[in-house]
Amino acid sequence: MSVDLSEAIQRVSVLEQFPSLENDQPNIEAPSPAVMYESTVDFNFADRNAFDSRWVDETQGISQLKEITKQGETYINLLYTYRSLSKALPQVKTSDDPNKNDIYEGMFDILEPEIKKLKSFMYFHKEAIKQFCEHVKKIAALLGDKKKGDQPSEAYMNCLIDLMDTFALLDAIKNIKACLPNDFAFYKRAFGFLRRTMTSNDDQTQENHTLYLFLAHQNIITTNLKTELQTIPGFDDVIALALNQCGDYLEENRCLLPSERNCLLRVIPYGLYLMDSEQNSQLNIFKSKKVKLPRFSAIFKKYPVVPLYGDMQITLDSTIRRSPHFDERAWGSSGMDAKATALEYELIHSIDTVRQQYNDYVAKFGNTINDIRILLKNKGVSLQVSKDVTEVVMQGMRYLSDWTTRVLQQAAWKYAKPNSDSETQSTVEYEKVVRYNYTAEEKFATVEFIAMIKSLAELMLREDGVFSPIIRNYIHDEVQEFIQIGLRDLIRTATKDKKKDIRNDLMQMRFLGADWFTGTEPADPALQGKKPAGKDTQNKILLPSRSVAPSPTQLELIRSTVHGLLVKRKEISSKYVGILEAFYQKSSFYKYLLDYSNTILQCSDLGDLWYKEFYLELSKRLQFPIDMSLPWILADHILESRDPAMIEFVFYPLDLYNDAAQRALRSLNQQFLFDEIEAEVNLCFDQLVYKLSEQIYNFFKTQASSILLDKPFKTQLETMYPSSKMHTPKSRYDVILRQRHVRLLGRSIDLNLLIAQRMNTYLRQNMDYAINKFEASDITTILELESMINNLRLTHSLMSKYFNLDPWDSILAEINESTSLVSFHGRIILHVIFELVYDFAPNFNFNAITNRFVRTPLAYADEVPRDSAPKPNPTFLYGTKILNGAYANAQDLYNKFFGMIHVESILRVVGKSNLPLVISECLQNMDLKIRNVLAPYVRELMGGMPPSSKLPIHDYGTEGGFGYFQLKLKDIITYPDLRPQVLQNFRELGNLLIFLNQCDQALSSSDAFAYVNAAPFLGATGRPEDSTSSDPSASSPLYSATSQLSGFLQNYPQLAKSPEILQELVNNSWKADRLYRPSVENFSLFACVLQKLNEMLDSVRGEWTSSSTENGVMNVDYTTEFYRLWSGLQFVCCLPTGENEYSNHELFGDGLFWAAISIIHFLGQRNRFEVFDFSYHIINVEESTEVPCTNAGIQQFFRKVSQLKDYNNLIFDMLDAFAPSQVSPLNYIAPPEDDASSTFVHKTSLTASAASPPPVRHEAPPPVRTDMPPPPPARNDMPPPPPSRDSMMAPPPPPARMDMPPPPPARMDAPPPPPARGGMPPPPPPRHDDMPPPPPPMMDMMPPPPMDDMPPPPPMMDLPPPPPMMDLPPPPPPRDF
Questions:
Q1: pLDDT digit string (tens) for 436-473?
Q2: Residues 6+ away with beta carbon under 8 Å from 905
Q3: 589-609 as b/e, with b when 16 or more CB fall inside 10 Å?
Q4: Treating both helix axes as pointing N-terminal to C-terminal, what angle do 984-1018 and 1151-1162 enclose, rounded to 10 degrees?
Q5: Which DSSP category does 1234 fall into?
Q6: How far does Cα 567 stand from its chain's mean position?
Q7: pLDDT greater at residue 278 or residue 680
Q8: Cα separation, 636 vs 647, whole angstroms
Q9: By mean pLDDT, which of 240-244, 562-566, 768-772, 1055-1059 is the weakest?
């Protein structure tokens, strides 16, 4: 489809209307253009016949030499990248191998294409030497004609120099490739076997023999070249001219590209070797006057090592020392071991100077580009400004070339001087020259050099579209000014003096490059040798200003003409010689300026730092690991050093892969090399993202930990450690995190997205680590879990400023495994319930004074199975070693007890929505304890109570009463399951009850705190609210403000962009007010728990209470009510203990009494318990006795009972506050009407209002879930309970039985124990936080029997009945005071 030009231009102009696609990400990577193009094309003088010049014939020779050199470069690439094929080929092991023919055929087919390339290379070197000698012969003839006095142009000599360098490279690379003769040997063997089946094999055999000799001899190319050259008369003059030109270029710094400079250094020793002949004594470079040997010796001593190709280097002395007439005294020592040489090669000695150059030039370049853009918008760019721009660009190119040369020279220096340290754990030579040959300072200096080179190249390439037209305009103006104005007087003088040759050259140059203002050449009297008429005639010449530079052929012909004139400088005035030399010097860099982008890319090419073909051949390996690759070594060093000043340079070393890949595809033409580079880049980039992500995650973790650390504690730590250890380390990760299109091997990579994916993974792994750590610990570590969750939540919040992360709630729910459609709980709440039921309730003691639980000193419950703890990972803790220690010390303060702070933490971690599940499981466990465990044991212990438990009279005294009850309760005291089962289960029941009470307190505190924060928005002022208002939310400030705003915007709809959102805002404000406003009714969680406990007791209420009495009032001597059993158990708990013996109170804590008192309270037996309790009776006797008891054991008993009595009253009062006891009907006792009347008790009832207070309204407890783990079962190793009594109303039992049946068996509906989940850590010290653990019990103390092989309880003894009241001894007489 054809498109009109105007239409095409119009379509292209539309692109300018699109917004800029550039983002604000910092540029911290090397130039990697998506589209490659060449602004100039080298036609190799194909248009030379279009110009009339005597130098046209020479351009033909230049074209031929360039073609040969270009073909030689292909063979250089072939030899350098050649790898052995014979290693991968199968070999014939025996002469009678049946597959021998197939093996040789396959070997021949595989090797033949490669051998053909080698044969082509052999023929090329012969043809190239022939062509080179012909040009040398031509130049020698030109130099030998003294009459003309002409010399070849510098361009011609440069082509000869390039071809000499090609010969040197071909010979050097061929020498080190041992795989070439090896592969040819396999090919020759296969060819010899298959020769009889081939045609014209004689010629091929001779060809193979010639190739064998060519590959076998070292330096054969140089030897053949030297032999051919020495047959040419005057060849040494040509070589000497070339070497002197090399010296001039090096001394005058006229070579710009690093490859050109290295080429000159390599050619000088190669040319000197060619000039020295063993057969001809006249060809002695040490005596020749055609070259100044000290001049080159000084260059060699300054640069003894030069990069050869890729990872190959050459020592310049080595070539000279092979000369037949080498003279050590005339040449001098090598500069390899001189300290000055190391200073020249090692970058650490020049980094400060180069850094200053970089900073100054970047500032200068920035000012220049800003000025140019302003001028382009206004009046345009003048010639002077164009000149300044060209000078700035030329300075930048020189800097790039110089810095790149320094980096490549250091690499060559390292190759030449490997690390010889014997302690180096190196297996191959390449490790000694790369991995272990760079110090940390040298790595940093190399990285900084690469960063400066690549960043400056990117900066200059970005302005290619601005600078290229200005540079072309300047070159055009310079050439026209030189031709039309600068040469005008010289033409007039040459015409006047009749110097025909000079005038012809000048006129050819005038016709060759002049661009006339009017398009035609004006009449000029200077062409006739006349002076122009009038003054300031030169200023009247108008020069066109065009952005069109001369073509490469034009420029080269003009320069060759100027060079020819300078050769005849004796015939030209010195004034004009200066003009010619100035133009000749400036024009030598025009070709680089015109090829702007390509020159910058060549000046910043560092691909040689990756290539390692020489050392792969040397070590006979296919490839080296990335730890030996210099690009990755430099990038990894930046990451490992954690230097914030270097982190921005982490992507610059990776650009070496871009340079290497560019060369592999466009220069070497080897796909396998690109595949190797791509594979290494994939591996290195994955490692880089992994390490970078780990450091970034650790950085944000440290930042979050530093923010959350307690401020006073942090201040104290800063006095012990450096303040920097407590704060986030300095970094520049924000620059890295803003990279969204990192360009690598032609791919654009969103680094931010890759790191964000790893951040999501790290957050999940860290959350899983925290939960695993909690699941391997007890309930006291809930604070540590909360701390880690808060740390992760803040870390997620900080990272969300830079990454698009998954929502935090989603991450937490996923790792907590609470996201399933069939799951109503997570891992955290399950472990909380597990710990509460299986470890907290059985193994912790409550201390009412400190309001804390501490681990019991002697555990009766089974060891708690837990998962094994995860391996310590400092990164998943708090970031740094100092912060990890600080948080660990702070959390250790809370790991020895369980208190309100832990309950509040459970409430925050589990959440109010999941709290009903915890409460439900606790209540369900309590219900199972009462029905399945306590009920059988209470029934059994009731059978062990004495038949008559009437309280002894006060006349018995304190010791008598104490001994009386001690004797009566002997069977209870010696009951083997008393501690491990009975008291243990009472403790579990009480601990859960106290825990639920603490949950209620924590909820109340949380609600109050939320209400205080929301009070300003709710309009709460602390004054009584107006009861006339039906809905207080309607008058709250939040709802009023949103309602007024909505009403205003409804009246002015043009101001509202989304009217539908206004009503939603009003509704949400009303909902928020209703959510945070407290209810008028006061709900209590603990009251609901007590109500459920009361309902649980319904299953045993009939058994634990007595409904029939003998006297019509109450049973006194014998009763089966629960309070009487607890009186006995309480007496046992208060018995004195030995010095090293744990008391029951120390073993079971206050939870034991919470359970019993709560049961007594809901059974309505408080008054009876307080009146008939055995312990209370004894202390009452002691209080009424005039002479106090002095027995130490009884005194200890009194102290325990006194404390316990006060605590029991406290528990009763708390229970009355949450669940007031019901008032029983009153019984009025009246005397009998007569002696025959047997009924004297009249039962009456109060009115409903007086008999019982109005019930307190409680919130219904949450329903019991059936999908939760079962509560702890009744232990299977517990003795079976006795059969239940037939009737609780039966008469009192006979005296104590001799054979008391064992406890009842466990109920069949009890759930099984949980699966084993690991071991349990050793228990902490006793319940007192600040007390040391008690000493071990005495050896004579009867330990509780084992749970597994416990013998049946002994039969109860036949206790003698108490004596009748009449037989009691009389009380002692009163004392006389």
A1: 999 999 999 999 999 999 999 999 999 998 999 999 99
A2: 782, 783, 785, 786
A3: bbbbbbbbbebbbbbbbbbbb
A4: 80
A5: S
A6: 67
A7: 680
A8: 11
A9: 1055-1059
H or E element at residue 505: helix 500-513
Q: Judging by beta carbons within 10 Å of its beta carbon (0-12, 13-18, 19+), is residue 123 exposed, middle or buried?
A: middle
Q: Is 45 left (phi over 0), alpha (psi -120 to 50) or beta?
A: left
CA distances, 364 to each of 29, 372, 600, 983 (Å):
21, 12, 18, 89
pLDDT tens track for 151-200: 899 999 999 999 999 999 999 999 999 999 999 999 998 888 888 777 65
Q: Please, which residues bridge with residue 1241 across strands? A: 1229
| pTM of this structure | 0.79
* 791 phi, psi to nearest 5 deg: -65, -45
pLDDT digits (tens, 9 = 90+) for 1342-1359: 333 333 333 343 333 343
- 1086: exposed, middle or buried (Cβ count in 10 Å: 0-12, 13-18, 19+): buried
First-to-final CA distance of the chain: 138
Count of C-beta atoms within a 10 Å radius of residue 1299: 9
Q: Is 741 in contact with 748 (CB distance < 8 Å)?
A: yes
480, 543 in Cβ contact below 8 A? yes
DSSP letter (8 states) at residue 522: P
Going by C-alpha positions, the residue among 354, 457, 355, 350 that lies closest to residue 413 is 350
Q: Please check whether residue 424 is in contact with residue 436, taking contact to mean a CB–CB distance below 8 angstroms.
A: yes
Query: What is the rounded distance in angstroms from the CA atom of residue 50 to the CA atom of residue 53?
Result: 10
Please write the tens of the pLDDT for every residue from 29-56.
Answer: 887 766 666 666 777 888 888 888 888 8
Exposure pattern of 1179-1215 as b/e (b: 16+ CB <10 Å)?
bebbeeeeeebeeeebeebbebbeebbebbeebbebb
Half-sphere exposure at residue 479, Cβ-oriented, CA atoms within 13 angstroms: 31
Residue that is written with structure tokens 């080698």 in the block: 118
Question: How high is the pLDDT of residue 521?
Answer: 84
The secondary structure element, H or E, covering residue 553 is helix 552-567
Place of tokens 């037989």: 1367
**At which residue do the structure tokens 């030069």 appear?**
306
Q: Measured between alpha carbons, how far is 200 from 192 in angstroms, rounded to an integer?
A: 13
Phi–psi pair at 1330, nearest 5 degrees:
-100, 10
DSSP state string for 1066-1078: HHHHHHHHHHHSP
Q: Which two tokens stand for residue 430?
A: 């390449």
**Nearest Cα to 668, choosing from 718, 615, 616, 607?**
607
Q: What single DSSP character describes residue 1322?
A: P
Distance, CA of 981 to CA of 860 (rounded, Å): 8
Nearest CA-CA partner of 451 in 568, 301, 347, 548: 347
Distance CA 527, CA 490 (A): 10
Mean pLDDT of 766-791: 94
Q: Where are the alpha helices (DSSP H) in 38-82?
A: 56-81
**Which residues, in sequence order, are bridge partners of residue 1243?**
1227
What does the alpha-carbon distance between residue 1032 and residue 1051 come to, in Å, rounded to a whole number? Answer: 26
663-672 pLDDT per residue, tens: 999 999 999 9
pLDDT tens for residues 119-140?
999 999 999 999 999 999 999 9
The Cα 1265–Cα 1263 span in angstroms is 6
Contact 843, 1323 (CB under 8 A): yes
Buried b / exposed e over 72-100, threshold 16 CB at 10 Å, is bbbbbbbbbbbbbbbeeeeebeeeeeeee
With contact defined as beta carbons under 8 Å apart, do 833 and 921 qualify? yes
Residue showing tokens 């044991």: 937
Tokens of 81: 């990248």
- The total of other beta-carbon atoms located within 10 Å of residue 1041's CB is 13
Cβ–Cβ < 8 Å for 314, 415 = no
1137: pLDDT strictly greater than 90: no
